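Data availability excerpt. The first of two example chains:
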Amino acid sequence: MPLHLEALTIDAEDPARLAAFWSALLGWTVVQDRPGARTLVPSDALCVPLRVRPSAGGPGAAGASSRYHLHVTSTSTDDMAETVERVLTLGGWHLDVGQAADEEHVVLADPEGNALCVIPPWNRFLAGTGRLGEVAGDGGRSTGVFWSEALGWPLVWDQDDETAVQSPAGGTKVAWGGGPVAPKDGASRLRLEVAAAPGSDLEDAVAELERLGATRADAVLAEGDSVTMTDPSGTELVVLPAR
């Protein structure tokens, strides 16, 4: 059975502050449903939740490289401007990642330097996805196919090594921008957390992911009863028991 995508997890030096930032930006509720973590429950049930965890590597570890960033949608030009201003007011800043001067989206950082983009309202690819329109990652086509099979989500984009998957019910898209994939500076501070399907155990889920092309990671990033693996692009993912 397909695994359940529980959340995109973010390592944080100050989890309470970062969770408060994303809660205020997205209008989502913060709960503590996993040990040591703050989970942001979407107001739109089809959006991918966010989970903020204390950085396992101590001070400065949350500043390591990341293989994912977030795309926040807007409903109008006024809403887009207000969303950008809200990020800045809440402690974020403008971020230069080499984007062209005529790019229509706005690239920003959250208070711990994690990249996010505010997407204009006329973007058709993210129409109807919800406030968190996309989790954008590094990886080639093999990564998108891996996640499509692992989650049972169809490929909604598959062109020129770029892929995207989305739940059959809709909501947030998860996308990979194609190769070559840049090297990481340690473990990615943003990663996907999946839970075993109901009626299966943790080792069943790990075995299924290994069959699809994942490997067990050397370092254990999550606390407690979980297994850390890497997907075909070498990005960490965490496997949790079924609820």
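And the second chain:
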Amino acid sequence: MSISKIERLTNLVICLLSTNQYLTAEKIRKSVAGYENSASDEAFSRMFERDKNELRDLGVPLEVGQESRLSTIEGYRINRTAYELPDVDLSQEESAAVAVAVQLWESPELAAAAQRALLKLRAAGVQVDSHSAVTPITAIPARTRGSEPAMRKLTAAVDAGRAVRFPHRGALNEPFTERTVEPWGVVTAHGRWYLVGHDLDRDAVRTFRLSRIGDDVVEFGPSGIVKKPSGADLRDIVDRATRSSEVSGTATVWVAEGRAHELRRFCTKATEKEMNDRAGSVLEVPVRSREWIARLIAGHGTDALVLEPPELRHDVLTKLREAAGERES
């Protein structure tokens, strides 16, 4: 039975992270679920080249080297040091918040896939790092959850070279509208996943955040027609699109002393002010996305309070009520 592109890439990342060896393409073909049913050597070579390029687009540090000192055959591995985050020192409160987040984003499906992949690697004679055998490796960022059905369908359309129709909304509080796109690829930037392609309705290159695409993705048209233009850098397209958003306004936010460092980092003005017997600062914060800044402020709970504008304060209160399981009366 064929597996999805996401599962194949997950298996590939697990494989290349789980060993210090440089693995040849042939060994990867035999060891990684998703490649073994390739119709021919040429079909596997094309699929593997696409997957390597996709991993590099995602920022995965893929290394190339010789399989052994006595071999001239090229092999591949992922630099674990470059792939992983450095050690982070957390306070007791921050550690508790991270623990809650881990519970929210726990994925049994990915853990099971990791264990199956490691067993297959051992069976193929690949030397698996003992630490990796104990610690499940998540190759796909947590924010993929909730958009996985759309992800699977979009990557399948990219592989097939077919156009797609899907419902999309510019913000979470806006209605869905149908978009017609020739998809070039899916990449991640700043912790979010984006579809990049040619918007047929607007006759222009566009990026779409996957969390704002509905599950009803439909392929249409003949296969093999849609192709990424030669030289197109999908990550650069996404970076330019996210950088080009203009500041739409300013929010005035009070934050407690020693808290909300992310808000403090990009504020344009800070004035010391005590509120409710707590020391703190009033910040002037530029707003590019009201939905994003509302999520960020709500994440600080009672350590951040929106003073202006009232619409943003309402958005933050709504998110806090939703997190507490309450409904707005």
